[in-house]
Write a structure and sequence with these properties.
By secondary structure, the protein is an alpha+beta fold. It has a single domain, classed as FAD/NAD(P)-binding domain. The chain is built from eight helices and 18 strands. A hairpin with a 2-residue loop joins strand 8 and strand 9. The structure holds flavin-adenine dinucleotide (FAD).
């Protein structure tokens, strides 16, 4: 495993919200043994959130009993890497992929002749480009920071001009909260940093560790396998477009990719099995989630219409939206 970061999991470019295992089964009913991935030791989490509140542009609050955890990704990402090392992986930090030629990876620490290359290198995946695979066509800028103070135990999502085409969030942690926003840079001319500053100024608290990243919002790419390459997580567009979450989907796909890479090397299982497997578990929820996001796009340009759409959906419809269900039964 190589990562260009010198410290795994840092800087944290993430709101760190991870749904509880029961919610993961409700989003991905075809998922198996999700407990292995999502039943986490308390040392890896930084708080439990018992609900989600959706705040309309006019300030009306809708609510869902969606349960989640705030992760500490600086700790959590290192934990995942240490599990890999325990199982025999070698990890090189501060090492970058530069190109892939004839299935061989060139990196800043030399050539790597791998039987299988897994591109888990985020939304701007170089692995995808080098392997002749698509990258997610829409990548929304998102900014996060750590706020000091008391924020209750409900995740809050704010919609409207606060974050045009996306939403702003408060994700409470045991101490403080992650605050941030993501917006549609195609339709919003405002710099994300300016929208972020306005949002946190209104919260009236100290915010540190501010980081910018990009969230794939166009659904999974057409193909995630080519030759000896597989794409996983943001590189594959594995984010839920209706809520921007990509940690759990990256973990589900990552486990599958690891399993199939092993079976490929041991028994010649075709790598295309990976594509079939992740689609079996995640394709339908991710497609529904993308449809919900496209439906929301129809209203995002007008706060009044957005407020009206939220009123029509109500608690139940908004709950279905974050669970990647059909909006209307
Ligand atoms: C501001 C923000 C807030 C978010 N909040 C949430 C949230 O609350 N909940 C949620 O579920 N999701 C959230 N997401 C999305 C989530 O962070 C991603 O979906 C998730 O991290 C995907 O994991 P990944 O492993 O695919 O990619 P990443 O976490 O982006 O990891 C990619 C890794 O590849 C490395 N890399 C990249 N290029 C190279 C190269 N050429 N050579 C070597 N290494 C390379 C990087 O250093 C990095 O470590 C958020 C995203 C942003 C930007």
């Amino acid at each position: 495993m190589i990562d260009r970061r010198r410290e795994i999991g840092y800087p944290v470019q993430c709101g760190e919200l991870l749904p509880a295992t029961k919610e993961m089964y409700s989003i991905f009913p075809r998922g198996t043994n999700l407990e292995e991935l999502f039943d986490l030791d308390d040392s890896l989490t930084a708080g439990r959130c018992s609900s989600v509140e959706f705040v309309s542009p006019g300030g009306r609050v809708y609510s869902s009993d969606f349960v989640s955890h705030a992760l500490d990704r600086r700790v959590f990402d290192k934990h995942l890497v240490s599990l890999a090392v325990e199982h025999g992986a070698r990890v090189e930090k501060g090492a970058s992929l530069t190109s892939i030629r004839d299935g061989v990876a060139n990196t800043t620490i030399g050539e790597v002749r791998a039987k299988v290359i897994v591109g888990a290198d985020g939304p701007n995946s170089l692995v995808a480009r080098q392997a002749g695979l698509q990258r997610p066509s829409a990548r929304y800028p998102a900014i996060t920071g750590r706020a000091e103070g008391q924020f209750g135990d409900a995740v809050k999502m704010f919609f409207g001009t606060v974050a045009p085409g996306g939403y702003a969030w408060i994700i409470p942690k045991t101490r403080g909260a992650n605050v941030g926003l993501g917006l549609n840079s195609r339709t919003c001319r405002e710099q994300p940093s300016i929208a972020f500053k306005r949002f946190v100024d209104n919260l009236d608290c100290r915010v540190t560790d501010v980081a910018l990243g990009f969230v794939p919002m166009s659904g999974p790419v057409a193909s995630t396998v080519n030759g000896n390459v597989m794409l996983v997580g943001d590189a594959a567009g594995h984010t839920m477009a209706s809520n921007g979450g990509g940690i759990p989907t990256a973990m589900i796909a990552g486990r599958l990719a690891g399993r199939i890479a092993r079976e490929h090397v041991a028994n010649g299982t075709p790598l295309s099995t990976y594509e079939q497997e992740w689609r079996r578990v995640m394709h339908n929820p991710l497609s529904r989630s993308l449809r919900t996001k496209r439906f929301a796009d129809l209203f995002f340009s007008n706060d009044f219409m957005l407020g009206l759409a939220m009123a029509i959906l109500g608690d139940r419809g908004l709950d279905r939206a974050i669970r990647c269900k059909r909006l209307f039964l």
